Amino acid sequence: MFSIYGISGQVFSGTLEEMNRVRAANRTRAVRAIAEDGEELGIEALTGMAAGSREAAVRAYRSMLPRDLERGPLYHASQIMQTNVIRLNADDSVTQAWRSLRDHGIHQAPVLDENGRLVGIVSERDLLTAINVDGGRIVESLGRRVRDVMTSPVVATAPITDIRRIASVMIDHGLDGVPIIGETGRLLGFVSRGDILRAVVTDPPLSLWR
Asked: Residue 136, SS3?
């Protein structure tokens, strides 16, 4: 289940497929979506194949897998998300926000309003539209607030969401991370591209066929 949060609060809640039809979240795809079944064999090698030939290639690949290979459970956002999340306030100055990201060694952070509700997300790139940094030091600022430069509305999701669906959203909408929101709308955690990559590298195996 995915949600979209903006300045006015939650503006959407539904499935990934429904969300992709919401204009506020729809962006031009910059890269190819997550591979479909069989594309891990190499899409170029399968291009132009008849459907039957492609299915045969996938079956051949499957037949080479060890029959006793134990597949682990599907990973959910709650299993890989960062729970100690650095969050910014919409009314923070861009200079405060920049220093907070720099001091914590991160490149983005969710933005909350005065009531603790998610309203956006801000990145280093966003902040650099309002400040001038030289040698890691702010030398000029336009005096703007985080709310003036943050990305809003922002896509968020529930703790039980499959990480592959989160990865699909990141690719389709050009996101570097997705906030994790509880049933009450409270920010519970954050999943970045790095979190997903670490899960793939350090916690194999992931099933290709589920």
From this structure: coil
Give per-residue pLDDT as tens, 67-101. Answer: 544 445 557 999 999 999 999 999 999 999 999 99
Q: Could you say which DSSP state residue 76 is in?
A: B
d(CA 155, CA 2): 7
Express each pLDDT in 154-168 by its tens digit: 999 999 999 989 999
Residues 68 and 47: their CA atoms lie apart, in Å, by 31
* The model's pTM: 0.70
- pLDDT of 113-140, one tens digit each? 999 999 999 999 999 999 888 777 777 7
Strand ranges of the sheet holding 154-157, from the earlier edge strand across to the other edge: 9-14, 2-6, 154-157, 177-181, 187-192
CATH number at residue 182: 3.10.580.10
**Does the residue 52 lie in any domain?**
no
Range of the domain at 184: 2-31+73-202
